[in-house]
Design a protein that fits this description.
Keywords: FAD, Flavoprotein, Oxidoreductase. By secondary structure, the chain is of the alpha+beta class. It has three domains: about 20-125, Butyryl-Coa Dehydrogenase, subunit A, domain 1 (Orthogonal Bundle), CATH 1.10.540.10; about 130-235, Beta Barrel (Butyryl-CoA Dehydrogenase, subunit A, domain 2), CATH 2.40.110.10; about 240-385, Butyryl-CoA Dehydrogenase, subunit A, domain 3 (Up-down Bundle), CATH 1.20.140.10. Helix content is about 50%, strand content about 15%. The protein is built from eleven helices and nine strands. The chain has helices at about 25-50, 60-65, 75-90, 90-110, 115-125, 145, 240-275, 285-315, 320-345, 355-365, 370-385, and strands spanning about 130-135, 150-155, 155-165, 175-180, 190-195, 200-205, 215-225, 275, 280. The strands form two sheets. Strands 1, 2, 3, 4, 5, 6 and 7 form a seven-stranded mixed sheet that branches. Strands 8-9 form a two-stranded antiparallel sheet. β4 and β5 form a beta hairpin. α1 packs parallel to α3 and α4 (about 90-110) runs antiparallel to α5. The model is unreliable at about 1-5 (pLDDT under 50).
């Protein structure tokens, strides 16, 4: 664990209702170490790497030293850690979420005991980095029914063919969890595809305007042969895929709160320092109105995420819970980063004042792990008893 663990954790400026107090002393200690690592190692270099669209590989050891990937922890702590990471940088939060949430989560949820023992220990220490390949060039929201990547059993192997898009970490990941449709039974299944497997190619997506540090890739699978024991034993239908997405979708809600908190704090600090008409703009009523609107969004969203974690820890967690949280918090996040940029005026569009990175990255969080509309239909189906999916 980090050397910083054990230090007192100051309250976040935007945590007006002191939700952080709900963390146990041991959980607060973990948060302390993570927050210190992010403040010392991530925040100072985030703008530079974001501008260059490069990944800071030198930070991987630091993430490993934190000892939090795949550790036994409450959902409240897991969510708060996602918040802390996004509060520092949404790209690094995404890197961690893809590896520890989507990739490790797929193996933890759908793998056999032998598969978990084979891959998870090295992933916990970041000796093996994971990626997760579900989205396709022609399929995002309709991927459950429209998945085109195929899997064909051939003796002791499976042969994968198809394409994936927007796959985070995929340019350098040691393994990728690839979801493909079995040609025999038409069901979606999960496969572990290791780096350098013949027929597997990952090409970096260039010219992004959001999450530029994340190394998203286009993946092509051309007669890609994987051994039969690389089929996740308990990934037999898309319902199994959904179990992974249900959990990680709640993580995105927490990330949205982290982005909101950062935007609010940047705007608040700027308002106290920036002077117009001979006084700090924090003294103006309209500026205070913007700040209070931001704080309201942060507080409401954080409260929703905390309750979501409590339901998860109580074993009462359902698809509609994470779907509503993801749809609501990312919408509120979009408002907050927009208001923060507005408060900073022209200074809000340059990286020097930090908010520009959060404004851009918010657009990616708003879209991934299910758009607002798709998550709305998940909740709508639950509350009405009628599906609006086509």
């Amino acid at each position: 664990m980090s050397d910083h663990v054990g230090k007192r954790v100051p309250m976040l400026t935007g945590d007006l209702y002191r939700f952080q107090d709900l963390l146990s002393p041991s959980e607060a200690s973990v948060v302390s170490g993570v927050r210190a690592f992010l403040a010392e190692q991530v925040t100072p270099i985030a703008n530079d790497y974001w501008a260059r669209a490069e990944f800071p590989f030198e930070l991987v050891k630091g993430f490993a030293d934190l000892g939090i990937a795949g550790s036994s922890q409450s959902n409240l702590l897991s969510g708060w850690l996602a918040l802390e990471m996004a509060h520092a940088d949404a790209s690094m939060a995404t890197f961690y979420g893809v590896h520890a949430g989507l990739a490790m989560g797929s193996i933890e949820t759908c793998g056999s005991a032998e598969q978990k023992e084979r891959w998870l220990p090295a992933m916990r220490t970041f000796a093996t980095i994971g990626a997760f390949a579900l989205t396709e060039p022609t399929g995002g929201s309709d991927v459950a029914a429209g998945l085109r990547t195929t899997a064909r059993r051939d003796g002791d192997n499976w042969v994968l063919n198809g394409a994936k898009r927007w796959i985070g970490n995929a340019t350098f990941a040691d393994l990728t969890v690839v979801w493909a449709r079995d040609l025999d039974d038409n069901q979606v299944k999960g496969f572990i595809v290791e780096k350098d497997t013949p027929g597997f190619t990952a090409t970096k997506i260039e010219n992004k305007i959001a999450l530029r540090i994340v190394q998203n890739a286009d993946i092509t699978l051309t007669d890609c042969v994987v051994p039969a024991d690389h089929l996740l034993e308990n990934a037999r239908t898309f319902k199994d895929t959904s179990k992974v997405l249900r959990a990680t979708r709640s993580g995105v809600a927490w990330e949205a709160v982290g982005v909101m908190l950062a935007a609010y704090e940047i705007a608040l600090d700027y308002a106290k320092e920036r002077e117009q008409f001979g006084r700090p703009i924090a003294k103006f009523q309209l500026v205070q109105d913007l700040l209070v609107r931001m704080l309201g969004n942060v507080t409401g969203s954080l409260g929703m995420c905390v309750r979501l974690a409590q339901l998860q820890d109580a074993g009462e967690f359902k698809d509609e819970h994470s779907a509503l949280a993801k749809a609501y918090t990312t919408t509120r996040m979009r408002e907050v980063v927009g208001w923060a940029r507005e408060l900073l005026a022209g200074n809000g569009i340059v990286l020097d004042y930090n908010i520009g990175r959060f404004v851009a990255d918010a657009e990616a969080l708003y879209s991934y792990e299910g758009t607002r509309e798709i998550n709305t239909m998940i909740v709508g189906r639950a509350v009405t008893g009628h599906s609006a999916f086509v």
